[in-house]
Amino acid sequence: MTEFIIRLETAVDREGLEELLLAAFPTSSELRLMRQLHEDGDVAFSLVAMEEAGVVGQALFSRLRMPAATLALAPVSVAANRRRRGIAAALIEAGLEQAKKDGWKAVVVVGDPSYYPRFGFNSEAVRGMSCQYAGPALMGLALAEDGFGGPRIEYAPAFSSLPDTD
Q: Domains of the chain, with CATH numbers?
């Protein structure tokens, strides 16, 4: 198994990230999402997993409009030939630590309900909050005692501007 390092994304990583997102997902929606979040200034931080060959993974954390001091985790991607090696888990864990260090109160994710609970995400954290992505895949993780507040979860505009299909 090749060793990888995790670090904050830099502008130099952008081309590799674009290639990764196009290869990792069935449509270009996640690539367009990443570009728009950067363009709008809504990226709080993005972590990349690097090997000698370049970028092999990413976890992007963007600001939510509501609740205050809350992040969205999306997209999370790993190169197909590097999956099942702990890269996504390492990116998510490092990202949650970075979010705590930076003073964010909570993180939400729309993802596999059998995968994300291992990091502390659960649907109970966001129960009763309205959201365009409401359902069993919507989960939250409080990073502070007053982590979640308010009646709804509102993502950055880049999320709602994406079409449902390619």
A: 5-160 (3.40.630.30)
